[in-house]
Design goal:
Layout: E1 2-7, E2 17-19, H1 25-33, E3 54-57
Parallel strand pairs: 1-3
Antiparallel strand pairs: 1-2
């Protein structure tokens, strides 16, 4: 299945569309980044994705001094 990927910052290494065999967010993130923990979804990385879904990746920058 094909899933569109949007980002809020320029990330040239992240493709605009990804072909994944599995049907979960974990499968997509493993394909993109070899696994990124995400605990805000009720089903976590087992959250189902479907053909034609769009996943938006946001980069949150935290500064310090």
């Amino acid at each position: 299945m094909k899933v569109r990927v949007k980002t809020t910052v320029h990330m040239p290494e992240v493709p605009a569309e990804v072909e994944v065999e599995g049907g979960s967010l974990r499968d997509l993130l493993v394909r993109l980044f070899a696994g990124v923990p995400h605990n805000r979804l009720p089903e976590g990385l087992a959250t189902a994705i479907h053909d034609g879904d769009t996943v938006t990746l946001s980069l949150i920058l935290i500064g310090g001094g």
